[in-house]
Amino acid sequence: MDKLLVLFTFSGSAIALIFALLTAKRVMRFSEGTDRMQKIAASIRAGANAFLKRQYRIVFIFFIAVFLILGALALLGLVSPFMPFAFLTGGIFSGLSGFIGMKIATASNARTANACREGLNKGLRIAFSAGSVMGFTVVGLGLLDVSIWLTLLKYVFKLSPDAIASAMLTFGMGASCMALFARVGGGIFTKAADVGADLVGKVEAGIPEDDPRNPAVIADNVGDNVGDVAGMGADLYESYIGSILSACSLGVAAFHDSKAMALPLLIAVLGVICSVLGTFFVRTKEGAEQKQLLRALSRGTNFAAVIIALGSFPLVWFVLGREHWLSYFAILAGLIGGVIIGQATEYFTSDSYKPTKKLAAASETGTATIIIGGLSTGMMSTLVPVVVICACVLIAYFVSGGASQPTMGLYGIALAAVGMLSTLGITLATDAYGPVADNAGGIAQMAELPAEVRERTDALDSLGNTTAATGKGFAIGSAALTALALMASYVDKIDSLMENAALQLSALSITSPTVLVGLFVGACLPFLFAAMTMNAVGRAAQSVVKEVRRQFRELTGLLDGRAEPDYATCVDLCTRSSLREMVLPTGVAVVAPVIVGLLLGWTGVVGMLAGATVSGFLLAVFMSNSGGAWDNAKKYIEGGNHGGKGSDQHKAAVVGDTVGDPFKDTAGPAINILIKLLSMVSIVFAAVVVHFSLF
Amino acid sequence: MDKLLVLFTFSGSAIALIFALLTAKRVMRFSEGTDRMQKIAASIRAGANAFLKRQYRIVFIFFIAVFLILGALALLGLVSPFMPFAFLTGGIFSGLSGFIGMKIATASNARTANACREGLNKGLRIAFSAGSVMGFTVVGLGLLDVSIWLTLLKYVFKLSPDAIASAMLTFGMGASCMALFARVGGGIFTKAADVGADLVGKVEAGIPEDDPRNPAVIADNVGDNVGDVAGMGADLYESYIGSILSACSLGVAAFHDSKAMALPLLIAVLGVICSVLGTFFVRTKEGAEQKQLLRALSRGTNFAAVIIALGSFPLVWFVLGREHWLSYFAILAGLIGGVIIGQATEYFTSDSYKPTKKLAAASETGTATIIIGGLSTGMMSTLVPVVVICACVLIAYFVSGGASQPTMGLYGIALAAVGMLSTLGITLATDAYGPVADNAGGIAQMAELPAEVRERTDALDSLGNTTAATGKGFAIGSAALTALALMASYVDKIDSLMENAALQLSALSITSPTVLVGLFVGACLPFLFAAMTMNAVGRAAQSVVKEVRRQFRELTGLLDGRAEPDYATCVDLCTRSSLREMVLPTGVAVVAPVIVGLLLGWTGVVGMLAGATVSGFLLAVFMSNSGGAWDNAKKYIEGGNHGGKGSDQHKAAVVGDTVGDPFKDTAGPAINILIKLLSMVSIVFAAVVVHFSLF
């Protein structure tokens, strides 16, 4: 059966990658439109390329450094000799996911705008296809990396399942590191450009969004690609393989058998097939309204979800064996849980529902009340996701037999995460299409296309906000479950490292001082991390503000359209400041588990992981949803409510939206990666902690 | 020795109460100034009295309900028959602390203003004396309640130390419930009035703060008294006895002997004596600058702290015995830890240091950047308090012998909390004097006293902001330590309830699903609680805004000073809305531990307590410090920096300050109480959970 498994995973990967390639070719056949559109698209492409090149150069140095450290540890016998290489490939594949996503996104933005000149449906098809390329590249590369390492370690080096699972977690760490760099760097870039462009352009100079006279407008569009696309690609690559690897590792610990490793992989393959099929359901008739567009997208994702729900039952039955068929409900809980979190996110952040409507109404009494309102909406929105995650944990744990054997229960939790992310191919497509539509709108505006084109891209964009909210729900929910599973993998790893002594669960009692102290430290990390990234956005944005003000002041005739702004300087400024700012937060995330481990011992590390997971989950939900609610409250007011565009209420809402930007697009999503990276680093350096810690 | 102990605690209580009484009498001898000042002071007094009366009426219903529930449980044998009565007295004494504090504060505000007509030193003396009355009333009543119950249970009913400690924790629960009502109700009142007065008066009508033409101005001043004074009094009463009771309870568990109960009580008595002596050092010469004023206050608190540090060594040596003398360092760690947290708070929130200066500079790029900056400053400021608490926990645990006997270590953590709060008499005096000075300034403005008077009250007030920040540091730090100690008391209580089975610490492993789920739920509670209280402030403030706008519109001649505003309606409006809004959050805090216990069992409750303590601590520090930094950034700009009063930068800073108001004065401090109340409720209802829970 094992050889069959490798065959299956390679095939799954091939299906995804070939589908992505064909879709990309189809997109490229469309025209980029007028000369002006082509020129704008080319500038955006050039800016995004330049950013990624410079970013990858910095990241490369980091990867070489960690590679050398891991190499040294391997020589000392503290980690397996495969780990340094696994670490590198994880980083490379994650970076590649982001790079390909960015390539296709920057190639299809003008094409989407051009297609919108003909009609909404055509625009949707191109934007969604671009999203699909990214979605299927991520899952395809993920499965490919897993397949290659599985083949190497199993058939070439003939390692035991335990050793395989452990070595493979290292490429999870590589992917997480890359993802964190991409999310933080891209997130700072996109928000610095956005805030800078808005503050000076919209608020001070009073020109519309995406106006070509604004010197930061190209940087803003570049930002959408490097942050929301490349960052998200690397991020979800990491989530995807993180959930699969933690399930594999816990499966081996529970069953001491590779069949438990097969299940998550096969679910992933099934997910690829269902997602491909689902994409064919995403189409709408011409003249469709926003509701129908949303229905078109939901039809695709729902189809995929239902088929996976049906198809994973026989998988569990035949792979794990009939005595473990109840584990099916762990997968189902994850799948349903993701949907519920997504819908709760939509409820709290979409202007079709009460919370965001009330938030928009708070603009009537000024800026302060809309800020307070957004913060409390975000905090309140943590309730449903927490309840869902708790329900998933309890269901997954107990149906998988955790009551009699805890490791089985923890394996169940990891399966729930795999279930939640199984439809990633298509959910990511609906998510990644947003920035493409957003860019298309920018190009339509800058190329001065007719108003109806902009209306169409706006319809696509606004839809993108809703699907992005849902996508974030999945990302956050799966991050929490994966982080818990990884925490369990860490405990398992420690258990295998403690030679003579059996691991005592009582050492992990939550009343133990090292666990408690770890809990405090871990819970503090997401707060510090959020503070650092927000400060970074603030600093970078202030430099953009100054540059844009300088150009408005010094380039005479800029506002009347007689002079061209200097776009490249703004792009370069954003690139330099975001790259400088991304190093510290990422560095802290990598170093913290090692320091905590050395000072407090492994029990402190477990406490830290639990604390970071819990507080990170809450903070990520809070920040993402506050940001989403502010964004849509502003859009709701722009739609003609509470005084409409230009009113004092609108100004108040713009402030809310600006505060929400680093919340929802920099700090919030980066925390998801942080909580998993902490566990991966802990696992990789477990032996170091066991040998050298003070406690 | 036991009888001597009771004698000592009664004497300590008597010293504190007599000192408070004498100080109060001395304050009352001063004149309230002009007719106009007397009239204004009388309106504030009347409003505050009316609020407290109505608040206590609602709270009374709640207390009777809980009393009946506890009575029923006592009849079923699930709680001790003393508990219902202990619960009532805790509530009554806590309420009394707030009431007396409010009485003296409303009596001394006009007197302080009047004294400031003669000089700064005289003003400081009166305001500080008023603060002292409150400080010593709190500690005096705290010790009195403990002494009475100790005598009753020990000498009248002759209970065992275990039973005594357990019954006494119930009056902690009563005090916490009262404190939460007072903090939340008063906090909503004060911030609704403040936000309402500022938004319409300062921002819309452009009249200065505390202008008598503003209809909400009396409500604003009433709010300072019912929120910052009465709320704080009840709050710190709760903190104070909470730390003592948890130490007593853990001491009995560790030593099975009443000597361990004696130590925290004797430290408290020592603290009273040192604090009384310390107050005599608080005086400054005429013409003193702000720095000298601060030094005068610090001299008092430092003196008290040093004497306690010296005096508690022999106490530990003789009471616990020389083999436990190392526990002294637990007390010392708490004492020093409190000082460090206070100083870190000052660093992050005072405009003498970089963070707040940089925050003020962020106003140059607009409202959004100052909001983002304040949020990240608050998040960043969590680092030092977390490190200090972690250090206190580890030091206290291990010096007290936790390595060999965990309960001893946990007793050490409780002793650290007692150490931190031992100087409460005088630190609370320096804290509570702030609102008095604030009110004095308001009266000076409304009574149109010469500008120099207002300058003096402003100097006192600004100093009050710094001491309040330090006071908050103590309150938050001690809350975290006390909450951890109470969590340990809960585990101990469960241990004693599990008849045949010995409690397995492995059941509390942080990887157990019920503990993990509890952790998530617990961590979510402070977020929900903050959201509810902030929403409540928002709703209440909006009703005030509408009323003030109505008066400006309908009462002709109000702005030219030809008509009198209708102050009473605003006070009544704040009273009604804050009382309505305080019920739900407090109710959730009381009900949550019981529901979690019934659904997840006692291990889930422990997880919940840990999660709530950790996330509540972080959230409280974050929110308090963000609020403090915004407040002082605004003051810094008002001091003539970044454009000064009336500039766009100032307007941006006012928005920040308004957002910060519910952060630092409603949600933040209430979370401190929440985390302790959750543990107290858990302990009191432990038997119910053990008997009826699903898990």
Describe it for me?
Two copies of one chain form a homodimer. Chain A is mostly helical. The first copy, chain A, has one domain (2-282, 290-506). Helices cover 84% and strands 0% of the residues of chain A. The first copy, chain A, is built from 19 helices and no strands. The first copy, chain A, has helices at 2-28, 35-75, 83-118, 120-156, 161-205, 217-255, 259-279, 290-319, 328-349, 354-362, 367-380, 383-399, 406-421, 424-446, 451-497, 513-554, 567-638, 648-684, 686-692. In chain A, helix 5 runs parallel beside helix 16 (513-554) and helix 6 (217-255) packs antiparallel against helix 14. The longest helix of chain A is centred in the last third of the chain and has 72 residues, at 567-638. Chain A is globular, with a radius of gyration of 24 Å. The relative contact order of chain A is 0.13. At the A-B interface, helix 5, helix 11, helix 12, helix 13 and helix 15 of A face helix 5, helix 11, helix 12, helix 13 and helix 15 of B.
